[in-house]
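Researcher: I'm preparing a figure for a lab meeting and need a structural model of a single chain. I don't have an experimental structure, so a prediction will have to do for now. The sequence is pasted below. Please return the structure as tokens so I can convert it later.
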Amino acid sequence: MTPWFNLPDASECGWRLPTSGEQGKSSGVPSVAIIGAGIAGLSAAFALQRIGYHVTVFDASDRCATGASASPAGIVKPYVTRQPSDAMRFYQNAYAVLMDWLVELGDASSYSEMGALQLKAEGYASNDVQQIVNAERASDIAGVSIDESAMWFRQAGWLSVQVLCEALLADVQRHGATFTPDHALIDLSRADEQWQLSFQQQPSAYFEHVILASGTDLLNEQWLPARTLIPARGQLTGFKNSTAIATVISGRHYAIPDEETLWVGATFDRGDRDTAVRVSDDDHNRNGLMDMLIEDCWHDPLIDETPTAHYVGVRCTTVDRFPLVGPLPDFHKARSVYQDLHHGRNPSQYPTPKMQPGLAVLAGLGARGVVASPYCASLLSDWLTGGHQLRDANRWVSPLRNLIRELKRQA
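Model: Understood. Here is the structure written out token by token.
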């Protein structure tokens, strides 16, 4: 591992782990403030509470799951590529963790395991994860006409991201976590081995540890360098569900059938932060679905019908589509230490980056956030308890990697 992606132990990064005797007690237990009550922040709360931290979740809104985590419909299925890849391994691990969490949360998670068909199956093979089915079998599964082979993910499905967030919040609150809404973080400062959290029109709070998981709030470049995160706007369109679609169907577009609503999506506009509903995006989603499915699956009134629901979310993504997970480095010092990487010096001449004590990030989840969040939170909790999983994945998820890439490319 190159020095800049070497991950020190949690204790070397200013993190204190509860002892076995402290767990379950209200006093003496190390505290962690999690900024953001979306899918990232609540996944972090769920994971860290289980290893003994006293968790307080802050959010700028008056409730959880606003912003991108307010999505009414998110696909839950493995991510596959034609050839084995780092991304496929990462997101298949993530899918496995999410499925374990959904079992633990039970009916509260809102998960609908109806399976998922992924079109454009050329070049893929059947295995333990997916089954390649011909057009006739795909049509039988879907309940509508499919004119091409597809990958069938039997154990896949969909859920409301918003409802999942509400289930996670209810669970952590039952186990002693605190939710503090209407707290918009405006500043972080370090003094006396604690972080001072300054909020807009609210008293400051003090914590040993902080996890930044507030999505688009991290785009302000206050805690992350420019271009580390990229906004990406997406719009879902809901139509009255008058089709016979029986499973999730995905290709260039996707369809998620609820009892009353057929959710069709989604647009993807990188760099766009506008949350207003666009009629042009509704048309784009409708036309995309009709291109994806044979026309006779539609009941005539739906084609010209006015949408019954909309969802617009702005997610944060990254250049390489991997999330940011782990302790937050001192970016100013890192830029100084690694500024001559483009000269090609031997990596052994560089030190491991210095981390900001007790400060971590979980962000940049992009379009796969509902699948990635539990795994990313589990990577963080595993690192805190001395495991190796985050260390093994650090070259993909390190918050420093974009800066390293930038420094290497300097002329």
